[in-house]
Structure formats: structure tokens, C-alpha cells
Write a structure and sequence with these properties.
Number of helices: 13
Structural class: alpha/beta
CATH architecture of the largest domain: 3-Layer(aba) Sandwich
CATH superfamily of the largest domain: Type I PLP-dependent aspartate aminotransferase-like (Major domain)
Largest sheet: 8 strands, mixed
Number of domains: 2
Order of helices and strands: HEHHEHEHEEHEHEHEEHHHEEHEEH
Distance between the termini: 16 Å
CATH class of the largest domain: Alpha Beta
Strand order of the largest sheet: 2-9-8-7-6-3-4-5
Strand content: 5-15%
Number of strands: 13
Shape: globular
Length: 424
């Protein structure tokens, strides 16, 4: 099926045939969900040994009684785990609670209310602005929107953000004080930034506002599916450019162990960490050190962590294969859509023809398959081309995923044909 070369009578016949298929599916009363990238139950079960792993011994390796107050930076053993994940020095890591999103929100709030490392608070600027590579992660956008920080988009490419566009925007606007990045298996495209992109990002501190910070959300640092994909080290690149203060890195075990009971990490320069800790000390006496100790017992060395992630990959691999098989089978020789083939992470990004995504999502919902709302991968929920759809394969069982993808591909075809007929 190729829309561009189809005659009106062909489109009408396709629409009739697809409508009949669609009505048959609607009669099945499906209730399937591909909205969020949550780990499946069998993934969560990989970490069930966390329960009882301490066997009454609450002492960290350095002798800290993790049951008590204190330790704003987290226990040393947990900070070492974060350092291994992010490939940074232990001294530059703070270990927190279960959510890296919480740490990111706190870091943005620190910059907004107080400023980093002696720089001007963002709230005192006339129009503070974040750059957002798109399609991107909706929760990043929510943080900015809640604080009234304006967002401007930068296109994503196969190797990272469009650096020519990004650098030009920063040179022309000194109100730009932040940049969101998911540098490895980017949400939702699955793209991993290449060396050129990372090196150019590390140089932004030379041309940006002194208070500018890159929020490096390395959520999928160890979530490879088939083989390890190497992400260039942003810290090393920043150090070589004397811009270490321009980068804040984040990671967590939320998709490694129990999603609701993991450990999150922030890594930054000493000056940035001092700013974060100064504000955090007014908010908390310390994180859940008992849970941090549980994780350090489960992963005493990086070797155990990598072995654990291989088990996750074994569960996820057939699910990604299922999604890609449906897309290849239905759209490989058509002009109905484009998609990435990620080597890790949690999502598959699919682009419909312009103006079609929201109708695909509506049709899918009526047929019993929930998808992330159209526009969710863009700031303010507005995809200007109405094309991007984020598919999250991880949570449903494989059989349900297979059914959901059959519905999805049918809805793409039906919505596209109807759009073409409307404009014929």
C-alpha cells in the first residue's frame, strides 16, 4: 500500500476493507495498554531477593548503621554503584531515593530558586528557557511547564540532537539555561548520541549563559538488548573543555530492580553538588539508606549488575522483536510510516504520515488498545506535524503485545487512508 501513488477508487476500496477488519476487532472488547515503559512482572521478579537480603545486618561496609538518621549523600557503597553505572568518580555522586525524576526536579528547582555555583537564579532572569530535543520525554517537559520555564524544541537526528540548530539557538539567546538529554537509547527514539554530538554538547558551556546546565538523564545506561552500545563519556569531554560545571548526570535502578523501590543517582561537579546539597539539607535528613544497602548487597560489583541486566534483556528482546516484526511486515514497502530499530531502552518511536497520529491513537483506543497521547513526546503536548507515536512494549505479556500490535498497524492503515481520502 502506497498512499502517494494510489487513485481515489483504490483508497475507497482500501478504506472499505480496513473498516470491516476494524469493526471485527472492536467486537473482541480488548483491554490492552502500551502507554508507559514499565517493567513487566517477570522483570521485577528478578530482584525479589532484595527482600530479606540484609538478614538483620544493617551495617554498611564502612560501619554506618543504615537504620538511623543522616548521610545526605547516601551510603558509600550505593554511591559506588552509581559511579559504576555513570562511569564517573565516586566523590562526584549522590545517591537518593527511588526516583531520578525526583532528583531532576530538585536540581531544576535549585537552579530556578537559587542558581548553581553562585550563578544567578533562573527566576530572576527575564525569560528562562530550556531546549528540548524532540521527540522526547514528557516528564521532562512537565517539570519545565510546572515552573513556568519556556521550552524550545531541537530536532533529533540519528546521532543525537541537531547540533547546528542547538548551537545557533544558544548563541542567539542568553536566556537559555537548560537542555534536556536522554543520551543513550533516547526516549522515545532509541538513538544513542555519538562522539561528535557529545563533544559538541560538552563545549556548550563556552558559549552559553554561565548558569546553563545540561540535564543528562542517562536512564538507560545499562539497558542494552543485544550487545553493549558505548555512549561517549560526557564528564571526560566536559573536563577537557573546562566546562565540567555545565553538566548534571542522572541515573537510577528503577528499571533494574523494583521500579518503585530503587535507588537514584545524581553526578555533578563539586560546585554543582554543593549547590544541590545545600538546598537538599533543608528538605531531608537523608535518604532510605536501608534500601541503598539492599542494592549494594545485591550488586557488590559491576559484574553482578551486568549479569542481572542480561536477564532483563532476555525478557525484553522478544517483545521488541514482536513490535519490529509487525512494523516491518505491514509498512516495510509502504509510505505509511517510519520507525527506529532501537538496540536497547524501553521504547519504539513510530512516525505516521503528517496529521495522522492522533487519529491512530483514537482508533486504537476504541478498539481496546491504549497508547501514549498524541503530542506527549513534545513540549506542551503539541506535535506540530501530528506524527509521532511512542510504543512501549515492556509491560504486557508477549501474546497481548502481539494482539495490540496487530490492532495498531490496522489503525495506522485505516487512519492514513481516511486522511488521504479527505484530502484527495
Amino acid at each position: 500500500m502506497r498512499i502517494e501513488t494510489a487513485h481515489r477508487d483504490q483508497l475507497q476500496q482500501w478504506e472499505k476493507d480496513l473498516e470491516q477488519q476494524y469493526q471485527r476487532i472492536c467486537q473482541h472488547n480488548l483491554s490492552l495498554d502500551l502507554t508507559r515503559g514499565k517493567p513487566a512482572a517477570d522483570q521485577l521478579s528478578l530482584s525479589d531477593s532484595l527482600d530479606g537480603i540484609l538478614t538483620g545486618d544493617y551495617r554498611a561496609p564502612d560501619g554506618t548503621d543504615t537504620r538511623n538518621y543522616g548521610g545526605l549523600e547516601g551510603i558509600a557503597a550505593s554511591r559506588e554503584l552509581g559511579a559504576d553505572i555513570l562511569q564517573v568518580p565516586f566523590e562526584e555522586v549522590l545517591a537518593g531515593g527511588n526516583s531520578s525524576l525526583t532528583l531532576m526536579y530538585h536540581a531544576v528547582l535549585t537552579g530556578y530558586l537559587f542558581g548553581f555555583a553562585g550563578n544567578q537564579p533562573w527566576k530572576d532572569m527575564s525569560a528562562p528557557k530550556f531546549l528540548c530535543p524532540v521527540p522526547g520525554y514528557d516528564r521532562h517537559f512537565t517539570i519545565c511547564e510546572q515552573l513556568g520555564i519556556t521550552m524550545d524544541t531541537v530536532p533529533m537526528t540519528a546521532t543525537g540532537p541537531d547540533m547546528d540548530v542547538l548551537e545557533q539557538k544558544i548563541r542567539e539567546d542568553d536566556q537559555i539555561i537548560g537542555l534536556w538529554c536522554v543520551p543513550k537509547f533516547s526516549n522515545p527514539t532509541g538513538v544513542t548520541y555519538d562522539e561528535d554530538a557529545v563533544n559538541r554538547l560538552a563545549q556548550l558551556g563556552k558559549i552559553a549563559n554561565p548558569g546553563f546546565r545540561i540535564f543528562w538523564d542517562n536512564a538507560y545506561a545499562i539497558h542494552d538488548l543485544d550487545h553493549q552500545v558505548i555512549l561517549p563519556n560526557i564528564r571526560e569531554a566536559a573536563l577537557s573543555n573546562d566546562t565540567a560545571d555545565s553538566v548534571l548526570q542522572f541515573a537510577s535502578t528503577s528499571k533494574v530492580t523494583h521500579a518503585g523501590a530503587g535507588v537514584a543517582f545524581v553526578s555533578a561537579s563539586p560546585a554543582n553538588l554543593a549547590s544541590i546539597k545545600q538546598q537538599m539539607s533543608a528538605m531531608t535528613i537523608g535518604p532510605d539508606k536501608v534500601n541503598q544497602l539492599r542494592h549494594s548487597r545485591l550488586f557488590p560489583e559491576l559484574t553482578q549488575l551486568k549479569e542481572h541486566m542480561q536477564k532483563h534483556a532476555e525478557i525484553l528482546r522478544p517483545k521488541f522483536a514482536c513490535v519490529l516484526e509487525h512494523l516491518d511486515k505491514n509498512f516495510a514497502d509502504t509510505d505509511l510510516g517510519e520507525w527506529e530499530k532501537p538496540q536497547g531502552g524501553y521504547f519504539v518511536s513510530f512516525n505516521t504520515r503528517p496529521g495522522v497520529a492522533s487519529e491512530v491513537i483514537r482508533l486504537s483506543a476504541e478498539a481496546g488498545v491504549k497508547l501514549t497521547p498524541a503530542g506527549a513526546t513534545f513540549p506542551y503536548g503539541k506535535d506540530p506535524e501530528n506524527t509521532n507515536i511512542r510504543i512501549a512494549p515492556s509491560f504486557p505479556p508477549l501474546e497481548e503485545l502481539d494482539t495490540a500490535m496487530a490492532v495498531f498497524t490496522l489503525c495506522v492503515k485505516l487512519a492514513t487512508v481516511r486522511e488521504a481520502l479527505a484530502n484527495a
